[in-house]
Write the structure tokens for this entry.
Amino acid sequence: MNPSHDMENKYMAMAKKFFGKQHPLFNAMGVKIEEIEQGRSVMSMACGPKTCNHKGALHSGAITTLLDTDCGMAIFSRIGDMRPIATIDLRVDFLAEVPVGEGVRAEVECYAIRGDVAYVKGVALAQSDRKLLASVTGSFAVGTLGPSLDRGEEGVKDE
């Protein structure tokens, strides 16, 4: 039995649950989970009609959403569960224009957790040539009030 393979499967199961019915926006945006390891997550998004700007390039807001989501998944994989988190600070620096029709690959690492705060850093790359398009850094509150994201719908109450 390979313990690292078991953990990778656990992270992928967490990710699939996270991207289930509870997050139809991410499904509509075409976010794909590429890799998950402890403290690291890679996701991608193709350029599609719902995510492109008026020029036909992936919208910067869609890229920011992808990066924010990938940050969360990197944190979940580091702490080993999907307890509620909240973005404290997220900085995205766009370094190059996204080419028309180009998909984006987001690679994020949760490099530290101090107390109830997780710290992340990562990049957004063009899918075709891995050209650096944006960088991201952020901090997130871990264990905030709210429903646990890995309990499924049975833990959600209608108000």
About this structure: Helices lie at 3-18, 24-29, 60-79. Residues 60-79 form the longest helix (20 residues). The first strand starts at residue 31 and ends at 37. Residues 28 and 50 are 8 Å apart (CA to CA).
